[in-house]
Design brief:
The complex is a heterodimer of chains A (about 325) and B (about 300). By secondary structure, chain A is an all-alpha fold. Chain A folds into 2 domains: about 1-40, no CATH class; about 70-300, MetI-like (MetI-like fold, Orthogonal Bundle). Chain A contains 14 helices and 2 strands, in the order ααββαααααααααααα. Chain A has helices at about 5-10, 15-50, 65-70, 75-105, 115-125, 130-140, 145-150, 165-175, 180-190, 195-205, 210-235, 240-245, 260-270, 275-300, and strands at about 50, 60. In chain A, strand 1 (about 50) and strand 2 (about 60) form a beta hairpin. In chain A, helix 4 runs antiparallel to helix 11, helix 11 runs antiparallel to helix 14 and helix 13 (about 260-270) packs antiparallel against helix 14 (about 275-300). The radius of gyration of chain A is 25 Å and the shape is globular. In chain B, about 70% of the residues lie in helices and about 0% in strands. With about 300 residues, chain B is mainly alpha-helical. Chain B folds into 2 domains: about 25-75, no CATH class; about 75-290, MetI-like (MetI-like fold, Orthogonal Bundle). Classes of the chains: A mainly alpha (about 325), B mainly alpha (about 300). Chains A and B meet through helix 2, helix 4, helix 5, helix 6 and helix 7 of A and helix 1, helix 4, helix 5, helix 6 and helix 10 of B.
């Protein structure tokens, strides 16, 4: 027994070690899972990204070639990055703003509140292929629900998925149908706005807007940051709609629906270019990481933490 | 403590539309109308799906639009479902959803117990790592995991879609840990003194007290796996293993689009989601409050 162990043993009772062992034992599924499904694959993927690798033959070292081709010599990479950024730039603020408006409006005493909440929340759990199919039909330029509704107002609806210009806006419209998830998070956050504070401000003569701006919004700001980060990450990972709308492995009209993850999927699993696809995955990771860090940095300016920074989760 | 009432009735000189009560009422009526109009438009897509699924071929493309097909063509449902091996796909979907539910509930709750109730060296660092993994895009680990699965012969089996769920999911561990922290420790302390082991406390005391949180985890997992398209698309190659999600896409690629049948099939695929949603709605909201997303 080494001196260090002896010293440690002296400082801690037998119960301490027993509890520590039990802790590792009960956390083992996740600890093993972390090593097998996260840490190991991250390292492997980093290695693959510098190689040419087709699964059946061993990886061949290429150095930075994959990254060089990708950044300077791959128009499809640029298209997919552009499409994804376009989508994210619109969908993230739209989701946050509309989700917030609906949540704040719904947080008042109105008739049928819980039914309304259910209705708004419902579409956000409807996802996958079935909802992508449904929207394919809703967006039908001639007979689809949206263009029929637009025609009531004398508007000739756009060709949506049949054109390169309108296919991404179509996806944004569809995403707005799913704002219920964000709304419900804000509704939960609004419960922590102290009623007494709002009433005190009202007695002091603060109008509805000022109460919202100076009390509700600051208290909700950590929640807004959370939804901002998660919806940014989510918007970079669109796949199912793009896959279904593009008709299998396509990318829609003139690649207008070729989103980043769809492109990665094509390279990895249609062409079996695992090395190149790993490089794509790492670039995606770096973009998401950078965006998350930037959002945290800016957050210091506008996010208010009650009771200081202690005990906050994000 | 009595707060003196300082809000007074509006002076007589003000016209009624400037009075406080009138403005409050007008505002709340306006909000109610806006929200209900929004709610109806949120329901329209689902109404459209069901309405289309009951139309005849002609009605689908009729101008002006047929909103409620009379008589409804119920045959669309059996027609759509017999074009694909529906029962087989349903069975596959259930396998790849129910097994993950069991795996997630058991493993995540056990790990969450370790994080919430046990002191072990490195616990806080591991917890930070756990939170960090929630931000990691799955695409980074996807390729090596796929390569390993293909080397050990797991591709084209249900194993890649089920086994990983027995290793706890970061989000569920986090959610359950928050819930367990709120359970008074007196109960488990008493059990410890009586000689109950930690796994015993987890199984006999904590789990029975955590039914709402565990149900939330179960529902989230079910919805995620039931709706999942990417995983099955990647790992299930033979038609006999297809889940409903992959089957639906396959259905569309194989046959020329018959909207009424496609919508009938979509309705059937979404039905379990809708049922579970209505049964578990209250729990979702609790689950979201539970994770303390407010920061």
């Amino acid at each position: 027994m080494s001196a260090l162990t002896r010293r440690l043993m002296r400082n801690h009772s037998k119960g301490y070690w027993r509890e520590a062992a039990m802790g590792y034992l009960m956390a083992a599924p996740w600890l093993i899972g972390f090593l097998v499904f996260t840490a190991g694959p991250i390292l492997l993927s980093f290695f693959y990204s510098f190689t040419s690798f087709q699964v059946t033959t061993p990886p061949r070292w290429l150095g930075l070639t994959n990254y060089r081709i990708l950044l300077f010599d791959d128009p499809k990479f640029h298209t997919s990055l552009y499409n994804t950024a376009y989508y994210a730039i619109f969908v993230v603020p739209l989701t946050i703003i509309t989700g917030l408006i609906v949540a704040v409006l719904m947080n008042q005493r109105i008739a049928g509140r819980s039914l309304l909440r259910t209705i708004y929340y419902l579409p956000s759990v409807v996802s996958g292929v079935a909802s992508a199919m449904l929207w394919l039909w809703i967006l039908n330029p001639k007979f689809g629900l949206i263009n029929v509704a637009l025609s009531w107002f004398g508007i000739k609806g756009p060709p949506w998925l049949n054109s390169a210009e309108w296919s991404k806006p179509a996806l944004i419209v569809m995403s707005l149908w799913g704002i219920g998830g964000t709304m419900i998070i804000y509704l939960a956050g609004l419960q922590s706005v102290p009623q007494s504070l709002l009433e005190a401000a009202e007695i002091d003569g603060a109008g509805a807007w000022r109460r919202f701006r100076h009390i509700t919004l600051p208290i909700l700001s950590p929640t807004i940051l959370f939804t901002m980060i998660t919806s940014t990450i989510g918007s970079f990972q669109v796949f199912t709609q793009a896959y279904v709308w593009g008709g299998g492995a396509g990318g829609g009209q003139r690649d207008s629906l070729l989103f980043y993850v769809l492109y990665l999927y094509q390279r990895a699993f249609n062409e079996l270019k695992m090395g190149y696809a790993s490089a794509l995955a790492w670039i995606l990771f770096l973009i998401i990481l950078a965006l998350t860090i930037i959002q945290f940095r800016f957050a210091q300016r506008w996010v208010y933490y009650e009771g200081g920074d202690e005990g906050r989760i994000i | 403590m009595a707060i003196p009432e300082i809000r007074t009735a509006p002076p007589r000189s003000l016209p009624f539309w400037q009075s406080r009560t009138f403005q409050d009422r007008a505002w709340s009526i306006a909000v109610t109308i806006i929200l209900w109009v929004g709610a109806l438009s949120f329901l329209m897509p689902l109404f459209w799906m069901i309405s289309t699924s009951l139309k005849s071929d002609k009605q689908v493309f009729a101008v002006p639009t047929v909103w409620i097909p009379i008589p409804p063509i119920w045959e669309n449902y059996p027609n759509a479902l017999t074009r694909i091996p529906f029962l087989l796909f349903l069975r596959n979907s259930l396998i790849t959803s129910v097994i993950p539910v069991i795996g997630a509930v058991l493993s995540a709750s056990m790990v969450a117990y370790a994080f919430a109730r046990l002191r072990w060296p490195g616990r806080n660092i591991w917890f930070l790592i756990l939170i960090a993994t929630m931000m990691l895009p799955g695409q980074v680990t996807m390729i090596p995991i796929y390569v390993v699965y293909s080397k050990i012969g797991w591709v084209n089996t249900f194993l890649p879609l089920t086994v990983p769920w027995f290793f706890g999911g970061a989000f569920y561990i986090f959610l359950l840990r928050q819930f367990f922290l709120g359970i008074p420790s007196e109960l488990s302390d008493a059990a410890l003194i009586d000689g109950c082991s930690h796994p015993g406390i987890w199984w006999r005391i904590i789990l029975p007290l955590s039914k709402p949180a565990l149900t939330t985890v179960a529902i989230f997992t079910f919805l995620l796996t039931w709706n999942d398209f990417f995983g099955p698309l990647l790992y299930l190659r033979s038609e006999r293993l297809y889940t409903l999600q992959v089957g639906l896409q396959y259905f569309r690629e194989q046959y020329s689009v018959q909207w009424q049948e496609l919508m009938a099939a979509s309705t059937v695929v979404l039905l379990p989601v809708l049922i579970i949603f209505f049964l578990g709605q209250r729990l979702f909201v609790q689950g979201i409050t539970l994770t303390g997303l407010k920061g």
